[in-house]
Design brief:
Belongs to the UDP-galactopyranose/dTDP-fucopyranose mutase family. The chain is of the alpha/beta class and about 375 residues long. It folds into 3 domains: about 5-75 and about 190-245 and about 315-365, 3-Layer(aba) Sandwich (Rossmann fold), CATH 3.40.50.720; about 90-170, no CATH class; about 245-305, no CATH class. The chain has helices spanning about 10-25, 65-70, 100-105, 110-125, 130-140, 140-155, 195-200, 215-220, 235, 315-330, 340-345, 350-365; strands at about 5-10, 30, 45, 50, 60, 85, 90-95, 185-190, 205-210, 225-230, 245-255, 265-270, 280, 295-305, 310-315, 335-340. The protein has a 7-stranded mixed β-sheet with strand order 7-6-12-13-14-11-15. It has a 5-stranded parallel β-sheet with strand order 9-2-1-10-16, covered by helices on one side. α4 (about 110-125) packs antiparallel against α5 (about 130-140). The longest helix is centred in the middle third of the chain and has 16 residues, at about 140-155. The two termini are about 20 Å apart. The mean pLDDT is about 95. Bound molecules: flavin-adenine dinucleotide (FAD). Flavin-adenine dinucleotide binds near residues 8, 10, 55, 349 and 351.
């Protein structure tokens, strides 16, 4: 049987595109090299808890159209992301707000916090920041930088802040209110029943084949579809012929613990360099779980090499220039649409990936 579309990747981009196409009567075959659908938003149930296998995912958007769209596929709870930072034996609220500052300096008013930050910045006399350390110091002052930014950023990038470019931090989201809500978006929550169920609903009406790698599959079935939607890595599609784009990867160590509450919060960042992981996620707190056990994931940031799971694109000048060259090749590829975080080599939040997939579908269908 010949399909209208072969959709490579059952992640959010592929699933939204497929949903739009099926609705309009197109026949779609969706393949994924993993043994499951949903891509990086995949959640699996362990001990009655929805575990986010590829990292914590909180849905947030200010776009009412996207919010209404995603709510067709799941009901969302009222989870608000309010991470905690642990530095040595000190505990702070994130994002940087009056709760953080009052704990750090034993103060109460916004003016006191602003004065301390301003005086710490002035003491440093940094006028032209040459690296990330100088940039962060010139924006945050010494205390916030040393306790909450330095170690975490160095673990994330695997390099000292003095060797990282200043553009990584353009501004710091300081809030001079007692507001621990990490996101400024109007809508936020976690889907009740997990993200995998959302992808499954979106993919209804398509044929799905997991454990199926595009490159082998297309060799054996070159005429399977009229058009292809490719959401894998753009450089891999072209056999890395111009070189490999760089990523950062993340390693997760997931454990079931025989306690009902390990850390009292879904997301705890470890900002001290001596603690090797960057965060511990306690999944049940995303859904206000009351199970007798708990599941935690320690996240370790790591260097990426071809063959590993790519997580974060390293969008420096060199990689962006290389991506643009691949993009030129992609534009010449007939009947192939490149989409999603890997096909477009950019970090996309879920709401943005949905918008991009809808736009691609509007243009193609
Ligand atoms: P993916 O989900 O990666 O889907 C691509 C699929 O293509 C994969 O399943 C892959 O196996 C498959 N594939 C690739 N190559 C091939 C091939 N050759 N053959 C067959 N299949 C192939 N967004 C938010 O809005 N909120 C958050 O809190 C949030 N947290 C995040 C945390 C982390 C650690 C990361 C990395 C991202 C986070 N995101 C978050 C972003 C979110 O994960 C993405 O927006 C979304 O997953 C992108 O979907 P996608 O379909 O583009 O990619």
């Amino acid at each position: 049987m010949k399909y209208d579309f072969l959709i490579v990747g059952a992640g959010l981009f592929g699933a939204v595109f497929a949903e739009q196409a099926v609705k309009k009567g197109y026949r779609c075959l969706v393949i994924d090299r993993r043994d499951h659908i949903a891509g990086n938003i995949y959640t699996e149930e362990i001990e009655g808890i929805q575990v986010h296998r590829y990292g914590a995912h909180i849905f947030h958007t200010s776009d009412r159209k996207i919010w209404n769209y995603i709510n067709q596929f799941a009901e969302f709870n009222n989870y608000i992301n309010s991470p905690i930072a642990v530095y040595k034996n000190e505990t702070y609220n994130l994002p940087f707000n009056m709760n953080t500052f009052s704990r750090m300096w034993n103060i109460r008013t916004p003016q006191e916090a602003k004065d301390i930050i301003a005086s710490q910045i002035a003491e440093l006399h940094i006028t032209d920041p040459k690296n990330l350390e100088e940039q962060a110091l010139s924006l945050a002052g010494r205390d916030v930088y040393e306790k909450l930014i330095k170690g975490y950023t160095e673990k994330q990038w695997g390099r000292p802040c003095t060797e990282l470019p200043s553009f990584i931090i353009k501004r710091l989201p300081f809030r001079f209110t007692y507001n621990n809500n990490y996101f400024n978006d109007r809508y936020q929550g976690i889907p009740i029943g997990g993200y995998t169920a959302i992808a499954a609903k979106m993919l209804q009406g398509c044929e799905i084949r997991t454990n199926t790698d595009y490159f082998t599959f297309i060799r054996e079935n070159p005429d399977v579809a009229d058009r292809i939607v490719f959401t894998g890595m753009i450089d891999e599609y072209f056999g890395y012929r111009l070189g490999a784009l760089q990523y950062r990867s993340v390693r997760f160590e997931t454990e079931v613990l025989d306690t009902d509450n390990y850390q009292g919060n879904a997301v705890v960042n470890y900002t001290d360099r001596d603690v090797l992981y960057t965060r511990i996620i306690e999944h049940k707190h995303f859904e206000f779980g009351t199970q007798p056990k708990t599941v935690i994931s320690r996240e370790y940031s790591s260097e990426w090499r071809v063959g590993m799971e790519p997580y974060y694109p390293v969008n420096n000048e060199e990689n962006n220039a290389l991506y643009r060259k691949y993009r030129e090749l992609a534009d010449r590829e007939k009947n192939v649409i490149f989409g999603g975080r890997l096909g477009q080599y950019r970090y996309y939040d879920m709401d943005k990936v949905i918008a991009a997939a809808m736009e691609a579908a509007d243009a193609a269908l």
